[in-house]
Design a protein that fits this description.
Layout (H helix, E strand, L loop, with lengths): L10 H15 L15 H10 L19 H21 L5 H6 L3 H16 L5
Helix pairs in contact: 1-2, 1-5, 3-5
Length: 125
């Protein structure tokens, strides 16, 4: 699947999304209070869902601004659906541990890794 073909007009917002993907795709952190990584899970979800409105608006509407093409929109659409499903089951105020323990978290990680790979490709691929 080709994922890169043009420049976006909001590169800073795209960088936030890519950072969020990295958090969501990563191994579950130790939940011992020592994880000082940023963004954390809460911010990653905000950057991916709330700041983009992709939970209520098709990511395809962001092609040219945040996303480069329909292939990127497709992988983001699948990921956002998985994140929203976890949020619906766990609630926005649930602990990170509850989210990480959700039955759908494996899908979130897998889809985030796919999206990260897609969005990280150079624009000419």
């Amino acid at each position: 699947m080709r994922c890169g073909c043009s420049v976006v007009t909001w590169p800073e917002r795209r960088a936030d999304v890519v950072s969020a993907l990295g958090v969501l795709a990563a191994e579950r952190p130790a939940l011992d209070g020592r994880d000082t990584g940023f963004p954390d899970l809460t911010n990653a979800v905000h950057w991916l869902v709330d700041d983009t409105s992709w939970d209520s608006q098709d990511p395809a509407t962001s092609v040219g601004t945040i996303l480069r093409n329909a292939a990127e929109a497709e992988v983001i659409r699948a990921l956002v659906a998985a994140v929203v499903a976890v949020s619906d089951r766990q609630g926005a105020e649930a602990s990170d541990a509850a989210w990480f323990g959700d039955s759908g978290w494996h899908d979130v990680r897998r889809l985030a890794a796919e999206a990260l790979t897609c969005l990280a490709r150079p624009a000419d691929h």
